[in-house]
Amino acid sequence: MQVKSFMFDMIRSELEDVVGVENVSTSEVDRASYTVDYFWLSRMWQDRGAEGPKPDIIVRPGSSEEVSKVLKIANYYKIPVHTWGGGSGSQGGALPMAGGILLDMKRMNKLISIDLNSHSITAEAGMIFQQLEWYANEKGYSCMHIPSCLTCGTIGGALGHRGIGIFSSKYGKIDDQCMSMEVVLPNGDIINTLPVPKHAAGPDLNQIFIGSEGTLGIITKATFRLFELPKYMKHHAFLFKSMKDGLAAGRDIMQKTQPSIMRLFDEAETISIIKKIIGFEKRGAFLNLSVDGPDERLVDIQMEIIKEICAKYDAEDMGSEYGEKWYENRITFFYPDHIMDIPQMFGTMDTVADFGHVEEIYWAMKNAIESNFPGVRFIAHCSHWYGWGTMIYDRFIMDNPPEDKEEALRLHNQIWNTGVRAAMEHGGVINDHHGIGLKLSRLMKEQYGPAFQVMEGLKKSLDPNGIMNPYKLGL
Ligand SMILES: Cc1cc2nc3c(=O)[nH]c(=O)nc-3n(C[C@H](O)[C@H](O)[C@H](O)COP(=O)(O)OP(=O)(O)OC[C@H]3O[C@@H](n4cnc5c(N)ncnc54)[C@H](O)[C@@H]3O)c2cc1C
Question: Atom of ligand 1 at shortest distance to CA of 158?
Fold first, then answer.
């Protein structure tokens, strides 16, 4: 699409007719502001003075009908469409790599209904999740989707990347919490998934669009479960001699009890981040957890069982103090000076596996990265637990990456390929909750093998012109 051509002006005026002149922009400043999300490469490009991927035109729709009309125009002219929520994704998922239209969803931020009989809440997908949570809290409820990006990510972004919040081990991921959705298909049709999330009326449409990262359609509304705000919450901490013991204890805890939060830090994180933020001085694998519930007796009995399990694996009981400190500082971990930042090179690999493979994967990734890339550190914790396994929030950090941007990109991608392939070779899945985006797109076929044709088939049938978020999700 050639900026300033006669045809460009014609298309622009069609889009203005749909959403209003004030909701279309081609200004340099606006275009530049959509070139960076939380993906390290986009930030490195900006840091090195390179021009990032700019959209040609920014469109801010105010309703599902407007989204539908925009997609019909885009399909007719075969213009790429990139959906942008809060732009806080770490995978480059929203970056407008193919130019064209950038659809900023944040005008679509209305609460639609709260149903206290069914315990559900419905809102437009451009709403920042914190806002939805405030609406729920006013009624004494919570969505219990409390990610660290609560104040900067939208409903659509959380669904688009299949996100997760800190209380996930009890309350599930966004795909457990979402009951139904309205989606605008690439051809402009507005559809609804079935009104309840569990049924036997064929494959689950929710799970086709959740995690599809704007490649199959645009989520415009969503209904979520509501939970009563937890009345009692208790925190505790333990120190294990090894990750092996901590993982085995975590597995047993998930079998016998239901903590809402559980984090197991490897020794490298225990002696760095945990020490720095909560002042914990010992070596080993630090585990903090929280149990909540409507009745204190239920909380206490679970905590007793957890203590017995941890004792069985020879953990040192650190009492409630460090568990409480962790909880109070749960967001401090993301503040400047505590989180990695440019000029460092870093990435969160975010691998998920069953209990039978997870420890092997942790060591395989650590060894592959630290032995192949001198000067790169690998640190990790397990932050979201399932009945069958856990995820490894594994990060690599390099303090002095190359200044040259091509060299930096090459090294960044080599580290990712090495770490992710080590995970896949040992039975891991390449991502738990940050999504695929641009960062992992090239590895999707390796991950899926012949099964990937199912996704390609969906893409071809729903988006035959390939206009939706090109180059993402391996599609
Ligand atoms: C400090 C920090 C902490 C974070 N903590 C967490 C965490 O605890 N848990 C977690 O899961 N993630 C976390 N993230 C990652 C990120 O914030 C999440 O992935 C978030 O859900 C992205 O939401 P967004 O609205 O910013 O999406 P964007 O970055 O704008 O978009 C993400 C993807 O979703 C697509 N998309 C956006 N809106 C729609 C829509 N309406 N329909 C279809 N597709 C859409 C985009 O095209 C893109 O592919 C964190 C990020 C930061 C910077």
Answer: 21
